[in-house]
Write a structure and sequence with these properties.
Elements: H1 14-21, E1 28-31, H2 38-44, E2 52-57, H3 60-69, H4 71-75, E3 79-83, H5 89-95, E4 101-107, H6 112-116, H7 142-148, H8 151-162, H9 167-180, H10 186-194, H11 200-218, H12 220-234, E5 235-245, H13 248-261, E6 265-266, E7 276-277, E8 282-284, H14 294-299, E9 307-313
Parallel strand pairs: 1-2, 1-4, 2-3, 4-5
Antiparallel strand pairs: 5-9, 6-7, 8-9
Helix pairs in contact: 8-9, 8-11, 12-13
């Protein structure tokens, strides 16, 4: 496969995604998280001249990058870029007069470009405004959440989306701190958390809190749920879905959906009533998630937490 043109983002589990996703070289595929176009272009390189990729992204920077760097695919009408949230996949396809597709790919991670851009506020390692919006036109940023949500709401976010044991204590400290000075910069939040812990624990807490804020800002789990619920509608029989997740909340949601949709027996709630045989919607291709090879882990440390799950529409 041709190498990605720049370092916008190094696509994770690329070979594994392509080998598990493509079933028809003349087909139509959806890349729900286009980013720098790495997965989209790799898919196109395996398709015939009839094949297409509908690439969805919320980030104007990503859209501008791919539109500029991969114009030849757009010009051939094989790469169709749509600015939208992937939760609206059915509407996106309908707007292109497409009813069904052969495959759907979603890489749920944040791109390297977003993480390494201090103006986006995704990383606790970089100084800048604490923003975290995937779509910069959205109204609510991490800064808004930190400075306006109630202590209880903040605690719930930190615990639910970050699985942070110190959620209540951190939420209380955020409210106390913002009463004297607004929390507008990543450094403000980092400084606050460093007052509450030390050593290796600080890094883990920062990771969890930044993750929780990002999920809340972008309503990521809600979007994932809506995407999963749309899959049966948009995939043709034999079509596949491949989803890469990076933390337990996402992976659990994907796994539970695939398991529930692949059941052939519905267990009875009463011993006197027999189990019910049901028609499954999906077949799980891999019961255990596919993870990065030793070689990829060596070349791309960001792949270490990636888990790929694949299912096929029946």
């Amino acid at each position: 496969m041709e190498k990605h043109k720049t370092n916008y983002h190094k696509p994770v589990l690329l070979e594994e995604c392509i080998s598990n996703l493509i079933s028809d070289k003349d087909g139509i595929y959806v890349d729900c998280t286009m980013g720098g176009g790495g997965h989209s272009i790799a898919i196109l390189q395996q398709l015939s001249a009839k094949g297409k990729v509908i690439a969805i992204d919320r980030d104007d920077d990503a859209i501008k990058f791919v539109s500029t760097n991969f114009f030849e695919w757009i010009n051939k009408d094989q790469l169709i870029i749509v600015k939208n949230n992937f939760q609206n996949i059915s509407e996106v396809l309908a707007s292109k007069n497409i009813l069904k597709v052969n495959g759907v790919l979603a890489d749920l991670g944040v791109s390297s470009f977003q993480i390494e851009n201090q103006d986006r506020g995704f990383s606790y390692l970089l100084s800048g405004e604490i923003d975290m919006r995937m779509d910069k036109q959205d109204e609510i940023s991490a800064k808004n959440i930190l400075n306006s949500y109630s202590e209880e709401s903040l605690s719930n976010i930190f615990y639910k989306y970050g699985e942070e044991p110190m959620s209540r204590r951190i939420a209380r400290e955020v409210v106390i701190s913002r009463n004297s000075k607004p929390i507008n910069e990543t450094a403000d939040l980092v400084s606050l958390i460093k007052k509450l812990s030390s050593g290796i624990h600080v890094v883990k807490i920062l990771s969890r809190i930044f993750q929780a804020l990002r999920i809340e800002v972008n309503k990521e789990l809600d979007a994932l749920t809506k995407l999963l619920e749309s899959l049966s509608e948009v995939l043709i029989p034999g079509g596949r879905v491949a989803i890469i997740s990076y933390h337990s909340l996402e992976d659990r949601a994907v796994k539970q959906f695939f398991v529930s949709q692949s059941r052939t027996i519905e267990k009875s709630t009463h011993k006197a009533i027999p189990d019910k045989i049901v028609q499954p919607n999906f077949l799980m291709i891999n019961k255990k998630p596919i993870t990065a090879s030793v070689e990829e882990l060596t070349l791309n440390k960001k792949s270490r937490s990636a888990k790929l799950r694949v299912a096929e529409k029946i």
